[in-house]
Amino acid sequence: MSSDLFEKLQDGLLGFAGGLINASGWADRAASKLVIDTLCATTRNRPHPLSTASDYTSWKSLTDKTYQARHLPPADLTVQPPIERVAALFARPAGTQALSRKSTCLFPAFAQYLTDGFIRTRPEKRDRTTTNHEIDLCPLYGLTEAQTTILRESTAAPGRRGRLKSQFINGEEYPPYLYTRDGSAIAPDFVGLDPPLLNPPGMPKPPAEQLASLFAVGGDRANGTPFTSMMNTLLLREHNRVAGELEGRNPGWDDDRVFETARNIMIPMFIKIVIEQYINHITPLPFNLTADPSIAWKAAWNRPNWITVEFSLLYRWHSLMPDEIEWPNRTIPLDEFRVDNRPLIDVGLAASFAATAAQPAGALGVCNTGRAILPLEALAVDQARRNRVASYNAYREHFGMPRATTFEEITRDPAIAAKLAALYPLPDDVEFYPGLFAEDRDPKSPLPGLLMRMVGVDAFTQALTNPLLSEHVYNAETFTPWGLELIESTRSLGDILKRQGAAIDPRDITMTQPGWRYGWHLA
User: Fold this and answer.
1) Selection from 360, 358, 354 nearest residue 319 by Cα
2) Are 389 and 309 in contact (CB under 8 A)?
3) Would you place residue 17 in the very low, low, confident or very high pLDDT band (cuts 50, 70, 90)?
4) How far does Cα 53 stand from its chain's mean position?
5) Rounded to 5 degrees, what are φ and ψ at 112?
6) Within 10 Å of residue 257's Cβ, how many Cβ atoms?
7) Domain tally for the chain?
């Protein structure tokens, strides 16, 4: 999904249909299928022969999904500068943060919520994972059936069937509180949920008053920031709204059927947003891709999901976060914008979304990570080394891109090229993680080339392969005719917020800055 690949695709599509930009119907589907199939063909299909279980193919490496898969075999790199020096490459020089020309903060907010659901590296064993390897909304529903049961109301009484537990604060619906009122312990009703990740290395444990604001949710990362809690709250409200509609339309259904059908609807609806709002924001193409499930039905790349160690590294988009969050009622320093739901509760859901979509995100890349989260870059470099991830150039080659023979082929920025040269004798020595983010960003996308291609491959081959989108499942029998129409009419987070009664224009809840125009890269 790098610029050169998409330039060729755009040229081919224009020749194919005399201009499919802003097309609809069959042309949209044909364009989407061509783009997705071409992108997914840039590397091999799953199953990968290796995982972090062993250096050779074994039954464990092919079946034990508590390990992470590998795109490339482990490599013992001979050049490994001190971690603190590599992490310093990400540090922002004196001065202001470089801001994205294209993205609002809704982009990193959604990216964090999405990836926290299926990239779940175990902090104490960074070759292992707790993910289900599916886009399954586990931050909302839990990782296991036992956790789902804890989060459900589970009642046979009419009028509340199929709902998730919730509470009302200032007239708005939120998940219930996870901790006791004084923040001293997890409430008895919610023992069995994953405890929240409270203090990543280098960051202090939150005080009790912050813990008291955390929600009982399905993921240990879903309380990470007001952004992730905002996303989860939106989806909880939509699940309960959908359950209410289903119960009203099907009064004979029991609690389980209402709940399971609502969840069946919510997961494809979320995947629609992943592709039609999030991926379309990333792509450098001047037209939108569609989330057509049939694209995957006969595709060679339609294989069972397994998150790779490389995918768990390339999503460390720390520099997208501004140093200060412009919240509706105050400016919040980034180091205070974590594990605390009070900012969300204070202003409400609609105002939180509007503010997130109004603020520019940071520019993704090296030399732009704020001091508050800079320690996370060192952890990423260390994780790559512990998992013996191959070199940056090895991945360029694996994903159909030429190897960089000079540092200037990685970046046209002479200062960044000089910093790479000071760390690594040759471009072949550049490690995967710093190389990804040292690349120049595509002028039509918030991402650099190799990272964009890898995100695209994994996103499509792991989103469109969801069981609920499969050929014999994606139908009105699974979702009800009303539910199927709801899925297919949803294209954005703003659509969901609007139908919950928010007084907003859905077009304002955008990942793309209102003033951004395709073609700026030519200026």
Assistant:
1) 360
2) yes
3) very low
4) 25
5) -65, -45
6) 15
7) 1
Residue 178 vs residues 113, 228, 271, 347, 523: alpha-carbon distances, Å: 19, 15, 27, 20, 51
E strands, 256-389, are 324-327, 330-333, 360-362
- Cα distances from 375 to residues 236, 370, 451, in angstroms, run 32, 10, 21
Cis peptide before 93 (omega within 30 of 0): no
Mean pLDDT (whole number) for 413-431: 98
Note the pTM of the prediction, 2 decimals: 0.93
Beta bridge partners of 324: 333
Coil, helix or strand at residue 351? helix
Q: Tokens for 233?
A: 């709250």
Q: Under a CB-based contact definition with an 8 Å cutoff, are residues 291 and 271 in contact?
A: yes
**Domain with 177 in it:** 3-522
Neighbours of 511 (CB within 10 A): 25
Q: Which residues pair with 234 in a beta bridge?
A: none
What is the C-alpha to C-alpha distance for residues 169 and 42, in angstroms, rounded to an integer? 49
- Between CA 266 and CA 261 the distance in angstroms is 9
In angstroms, the first-to-last Cα distance of the chain is 22
Strand (E) or helix (H) holding 419 = helix 414-423
- Which candidate, 457, 450, 463, places its Cα nearest to that of 277? 463
Distance set, CA 424 to CA 89, 96, 314, 432, 491 (Å):
12, 27, 20, 12, 44
Q: How confident is the model at residue 222 (pLDDT cuts 50, 70, 90)?
A: very high
Instruction: Indicate the range of 11-20, 154-163, 425-434 predicted with least confidence.
Output: 11-20
Where does 74-221 show beta strands of DSSP type E?
99-104, 121-122, 125-129, 167-169, 172-174
pLDDT tens, residue by residue, 147-167: 999 999 988 888 999 999 999
> What does the chain come to in residues?
523
- What would the two tokens of residue 38 be? 């071409």
Residue 5 pLDDT grade (very low, low, confident, very high; cuts 50, 70, 90): low
At 157, which CATH number? 1.10.640.10
Determine contact, residues 468/321, Cβ cutoff 8 Å. Answer: no
Contacts of 177 (CB under 8 A, 6+ apart): 167, 187, 212, 213, 214, 215, 216
DSSP, res 413? -
β-strand partners of 301: none
